[in-house]
Amino acid sequence: METTVKTPGASSGKSKVNEAEAQLVQQVVLWLQRAAGLAHEDIGVVSPYAAQVELLKQKFLDASSSSAAPAASSSKQAAKGTAQSQGQGSASGGRAQGSMVAVMPAADQVQVASVDGFQGREKEVIVFSTVRSNAGGKIGFLRDPRRLNVAITRAKRLLVVVGNKATLAAGGCPHWTAWMEYLEHKGW
């Protein structure tokens, strides 16, 4: 699946983020769960940038909290019991009393990690967030063939790359060029 994200990646410290791409990654994961029937634990999300990884983790945490909040709102005591049964103490998680925060088991979370952090692990499906989206073809870490190799070989059944094709093509990296030519040759 190819998706072009034209919103420029914004700097966040020394790392990069792309909010529009993060939203698209979240939609892809939701589609994989609903339409394809994949479980959370079958899906991994990787990105070469730590700031993007943190943004994606926060988006998934916010989504799981908001989707579970109505169920948790019926009883503070039920939420507290759920949190304690998972060994996590208070359901408020350090937040003010009365706030409704759903505590989701770790197994229910989509695993999000940096490309380097995912090395040696596999998932049924990997969604790769490339982040970079700029007119100059600046692709940073994406130029490293080792990182590209790790990113695109973690999937057992399906790899979904979310990124800006024009930026990747303009980056002058022979590995990205060869990969995109292969995809075009296959009609993908």
Description:
By secondary structure, the protein is an alpha/beta fold. It has one domain (2-186): Rossmann fold. Helices cover 40% and strands 17% of the residues. It is built from six helices and seven strands. The protein has helices spanning 19-34, 50-72, 76-85, 145-152, 165-170, 174-186, and strands spanning 2-3, 10-12, 15-17, 43-47, 111-114, 123-129, 155-162. Strands 1-7-6-4-5 form a five-stranded parallel β-sheet, with helices on one face. A two-stranded antiparallel sheet has the order 2-3. Mean pLDDT is 77; it is low at 1-7 and 69-107.
Task: Present the secondary structure layout.
Layout lengths: L1 E2 L6 E3 L2 E3 L1 H16 L8 E5 L2 H23 L3 H10 L25 E4 L8 E7 L15 H8 L2 E8 L2 H6 L3 H13 L2
Parallel strand pairs: 1-7, 4-5, 4-6, 6-7
Antiparallel strand pairs: 2-3
Helix pairs in contact: 1-2
As a percent range, the share of strand residues is: 15-25%
Helix-strand pattern: EEEHEHHEEHEHH
The separation of the N and C termini measures: 7 Å
- The structural domain count equals 1
Mean pLDDT: 77
Can you tell me the CATH class?
Answer: Alpha Beta
Work out the helicity level.
40-55%
Protein name: IGHMBP2 family helicase
InterPro entries: DNA2/NAM7-like, DNA2/NAM7-like_C, P-loop_NTPase, SF1_C_Upf1
Keywords: ATP-binding, Helicase, Hydrolase, Nucleotide-binding
Organism: Haematococcus lacustris
